[in-house]
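Write out this protein's structure.
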Amino acid sequence: MIVLVITRQHFLQQMLIQALSADSGVVAASGSCHPAVDAAAQSHPPHLVVVDTAHPERFRQVSGLRARFPAVKVVVLAVSGGDEEVLAWAEIGVSGYVEPDTSTEQLILTLRRAAAGEVVCPPRLTALLLKRFSAPSTVRVEMGGTSELTRREFDVVKLVAQGLANKLIARQLQIAEATVKNHVHSILEKWNVRTRGEAAACYRRSESKDAYRFREAA
């Protein structure tokens, strides 16, 4: 089983690779920035990806890998992140979510179970998902009328879903950071959501259904 480890924390990367490589059935590769991830994946096409929640481009890199390797399983290592982070990963459809206090043996077992097609979910995440999806939905994305996005808002929310901060979005779209903030605020209002995480979840869910529409700004 080949596992690709994605983290910018060098000590964590080395620790994980050492732990994984100690298991005779696991070959671990590593990557952090896009070129490193691409090179590692090219040399060792992964069966699983382990990504830490502190990585600034975690959603973008995982999305890119899943596009190249549709069968790859994703296990998230919870280094940081609140409830919205957890729910965002759940929306993506990861195979495992590992809490910070997980032992090496438990991590290896989680990877093997994920590779076998199981979904490994800690009790806290299970409770959070049950609470979210058993309550009346507060995330409503209506395609049409005032809920349609402008072309620029679509560009912004796509980058928000990739985990980019406003400053990086502004740089990539070559617009002012204040303009990005205005677009984000407009998206939240149109979709009746409260946070960037909920907006990102809406985007990923709707993208999978090819449901997006946008209107030209006046």
